[in-house]
Amino acid sequence: MRRLLFAFLAIAACGTSVDDSEERARAFAKKAGWDVQGVECQKYDSNENDYVSCTLFMPNGVVEAVECPTWDSCNDRCRRASIRE
Predict the structure, then answer these.
(1) Cβ contacts of residue 17 below 8 Å, gap of 6+?
(2) Domain of residue 39, residue span
(3) Which of 30, 36, 55, 66 is most buried as measured by Cβ atoms within 10 A of its Cβ?
(4) How far apart are CA 34 and CA 14, in angstroms?
(5) 3-state secondary structure of 39
(6) Per the domain annotation, does 66 fall within a domain?
(7) Is there a domain that residue 85 lies in?
(8) Measuring CA to CA, how many Å separate 82 from each of 5, 12, 15, 59?
(9) C-alpha atoms less than 13 angstroms from C-alpha of 76 in its C-beta half-sphere
(10) Is 0.70 topped by the overall pTM?
(11) Which helix (H) or strand (E) holds 66?
């Protein structure tokens, strides 16, 4: 029973929502010095790496791809999306 309670508390402490991912994406952009007009993040981690894809839209038409932590991740920072072939 203690293990189950500990697991639940760990998930609750590390959890984040799509809104949290979008806020983290905005914070990432601000730290990078980017002027962001809009942010959209996916709701599903399709490759199960604990990050969701987010798109940052700049007023000048530039679009930047970043990855931000999912709801069940203890990661707290976004990162630039890597190009995979």
Answers:
(1) 71
(2) 2-80
(3) 66
(4) 27
(5) strand
(6) yes
(7) no
(8) 36, 29, 24, 23
(9) 2
(10) yes
(11) strand 63-69
